[in-house]
Amino acid sequence: METLNPHFTLRGVGVTLNGRRILEGIDLDIPKGRATFIMGRSGAGKTTLLRVLNRLNECFPGSETSGEVLLHLDRGVVRPYAGDIALPELRRLVGMVFQHPNVLPMSIEANIAMPLSTVRGCGRDEAMEVARLALQEARLWEEVRDRLDADARTLSGGQQQRLCLARTLAMKPDVLLLDEPTSSLDFMAARGIEELLAGLKGRYTLVVVSHGREFSARLADDIVILRDGRVHGPSGDIDADLDTCPEGLERMP
Amino acid sequence: MRQTQPCRQQSTRFCRQLFFDRAARALSCGAGFVSLATLAAIFAFLALLSLPLFTQGQWDSVLQTVWRPFEGRYGIVPMIAGSLILSCSAFALAYPLGMGVCLFVLGPGGGLLRRATMGVVTFMTAIPTVVYGFVSVFLLVPLLGRAFGGRGPSLLAAVLTLALLVLPTIVLFLHGSMRETEERTRLTSAALGFTPLQALLLVVLPGSAAGLRTAAVMGWCRALSDTLIPLMLAGNAPQFPDSLFDSVRTLTAHIALVVAMDNSSPAFHSLFACGLTLFGVSLAAQAALRPRSATSGPMRGRTLGLLSFMAARPACRALVSVWAVLSAAAVLASVGALLVFLLSRSLPVLDLRLFFGDTPILAALLGRQPVWDGLFAACAGTLALVILASLMAIPVGIAGGVALFQYLRGPWAAALRFSANALAGVPSIVMGLFGFSLIILLRHTVAHEANTSLLLSAVCIALLVLPYTINATAQSLDTLPVDLRLLGPSLGMTSWQSLRRILLPAAGRGILGGVVLSMGRAAEDTAVILLTGVVAHGGLPRGLFDKFEALPFTIYYLAAQYQSAHDLAKGFGAALTLLALTVLLFCIARALQGRMEREWKH
Fold first, then answer.
1. B513: which DSSP letter?
2. A7-25 pLDDT tens trace
3. For chain A: N or C, fewer Cβ within 10 A?
4. ipTM score of the complex?
């Protein structure tokens, strides 16, 4: 097995929510530029593990994270939980797309431009340009270029999810966290997202929570299995890892 | 690795964002503690001003059964008894009635009539207290007189009206908790072979024990803390009543009647003892309602036994059904009679002269000529009061709600939540007494010229509606999906940016609905302004420190003091105008909240 540059290094990470232990003793390297899939039964703590990476668990009162997380940047190694990097900057660098497309009740364009101008202080023209590039990258541009002023909620589910992806891409992240990005979509829309993710692979470090065995087998470089709050793998052999998956993962992506 | 190109100087932006974030947190937490501070201040003022009773050894003179201030006898015991008798009788009537309405609404079928009944009950919350009182004076009191031969106001008239007034509070709390239980257990009950009525008696009622308790406490508190109904209908004689047709005086009415007295006698200090008593009871009720453990205590064995006894016998079930239908019919008939009477008496007399007298309308509107004989000054006063109070209550209330939702955790959040709820439970006459005592303290200390005024009324009204705005804001934000709350942070927004750009706009309609509802509350309240600067004939308010007229006070005043047919017509016109205003605000609020709910519920 070749040695890979890690993007994230987790050592002994544990998360408790109101005293209940969700994750325990997680040791994990997430390699740079690869697609790491987190799998496991529902309730195993997959989403919580994902949210460790951008410190989003802290949005829930009563949650506590212990252990050490290292983020490897070009300028060196930082420890997000020790305050080496400002929280907004961390979350901009580590973008996230949610399970259900959560577009804002505003126009398609504003969905991307508003966070851009708010977080990065872009002017209107600049935000427009960045939004166009992001929409192209998310393969949505051709479908919406004529109706950028339309309410984003008029888009189909698959389009909405691609818009959410574009919104995250527009922030110029290094890492993309994807929480079951296809599970709320129909088959065709899910395939569209899957192709899109295949195109993003290599350019971003992808960390994906997934239920779908087939979906994971097609896209993953590494597979991590979560069971009872602990990680198993990756062994380097995807098929072997998939075979250790608990049952109940046969649902289509 | 991709090179990120910051659009602007990243570091100064971070500093600015961080500053805004900190400032927003500090400001909203500060605003949240206004309600805590108000609660403490009310207690401190009332305690301070009733202190002479204790230091000068006069407290035994207060705990007497006779109130004759000119003979030096200041007993408030008859008033305490009056308050207890009136509130308990009204509650004893309203609670079974409310339960019947609830069983009717939740009963089998779920047809149009049931939904309409619930709509009418909700609509009842929009009718101002003073309008209930006004209509009772001219409709119920003569009716009772004809039926029982009584003359004028009586305990019975007050009990009946007060029961109608507190009914929507009881029904809304009951319905809220029972419907939730019903939806949760519907399939289980059906699978066990229960009829809908059996399910209500055996599953829903025992399963909503906490809700039943909340409805009882809130309903009783509402009856105890009301001022206007006893003031207008109960006769106000400081005595123990012998029968339902006797006259009684409640603590709340007592405060309203006596507050204008000279301010050094024991009578005066005994008022604050009355206020302190009411305040203590409302606080105790609030404390009793504190959520205990996750699962509140189940229903006791005996009650449960009675319910299963009733559910098992067809005759009892039929009785329950009849009772439910009768309660609903009684409530619908009462509200219908109230509205028909008010409309039939006020529409014929409604014209512009009623508002402007003989003054040219344009001149009156521009304030060039005073209006001596019309409702214009009262309308303008109410408008000024609502606007001033809203200007104070809305920003502070929204900021407080934001603090509750976003910034405060643990014991601080619990303290703020408790103080907001407790403040909402403070009787409005106590809030008025608080404003009045503020003026007394000011006079004795820095501002010897201080007097009750429009500004003082607005401040007190603002404090009265503040908890509604706080709770509406926090609740609207709470209904947003969790994903939406995480979206802002996941994009790198600070919590203030996320609130400002995502959460507040998304919850905007719900918050606005709560704000409009509290404006309706500000427009209808009478007890507060009664003690803080309203007058019957003052013309347009000339400034913040001037006395003013207001619609609810005009209605109250004319109901007791009318001297001509024209005065009576003015009274009915004012009642209709105030009702139209509160109903309009109520409808706007419902529409806004309904749209918010549809938008964010899947």
1. H
2. 999 999 999 988 889 998 8
3. N
4. 0.86
